[in-house]
């Protein structure tokens, strides 16, 4: 549990890693400040939930207004737990991508989550940003490595200019997995509880390793101190809430 003071009752948080970059809009939403009733209470930003669409629209309006942006400048995708990456220069709702990249000022990109890892990347030299949705399938499928490779190929991205934020997701102790999932992770990221014999996977560490292997300095990698399960009062958790819950957004963009 984090010991530093953070206002979790706010509708969003700005990762400290990015606070030095005044040219960025970057935020990770919480579940506070919206209009949705239980079990989506209250800032449900997920389009593909059974919450009333009017509630989600109002929640999104509030969120984007709070961060100094508009939903009309936002690009996202219906995520499929795959590893396909979209380079986009236009706002809109796309289909089948779990990572988005852009170098267009004034355009926000983002991913929705409720236990999976939201990952935001900034190439400070080439002025490129990426938003990645990494569940366990995306993590073992190497979606972060593929996103970095795409940025390197398309823009000449180099590790020393990269800043990466690994956002709020399910914590290791809460993410119990079966043997068929565990065997797809490197052993470093699997832990068996000696008392319960439960096997758990560490999504934050697995994705951190990818950035380290790419060469990103550890000082340029930020990791959320929070858990969607342990801090469920402040974040949505699909697992903790039995699948009936809202979604958060993690967004990044270069100011226009």
UniProtKB/TrEMBL annotation:
The protein's name in its UniProt record: Purine nucleoside phosphorylase
PANTHER family (alphabetical): PURINE NUCLEOSIDE PHOSPHORYLASE LACC1, UNCHARACTERIZED PROTEIN YFIH
Keywords noted in UniProt: Hydrolase, Metal-binding, Transferase, Zinc
UniProt source species: Spirosoma soli
Pfam families: Cu-oxidase_4
Gene giving rise to this polypeptide: pgeF
Catalysed conversion reaction: adenosine + H2O + H(+) = inosine + NH4(+); S-methyl-5'-thioadenosine + phosphate = 5-(methylsulfanyl)-alpha-D-ribose 1-phosphate + adenine; inosine + phosphate = alpha-D-ribose 1-phosphate + hypoxanthine; adenosine + phosphate = alpha-D-ribose 1-phosphate + adenine
Family under the similarity heading: Belongs to the purine nucleoside phosphorylase YfiH/LACC1 family.
Chain segments annotated as coiled-coil in the UniProt record: none
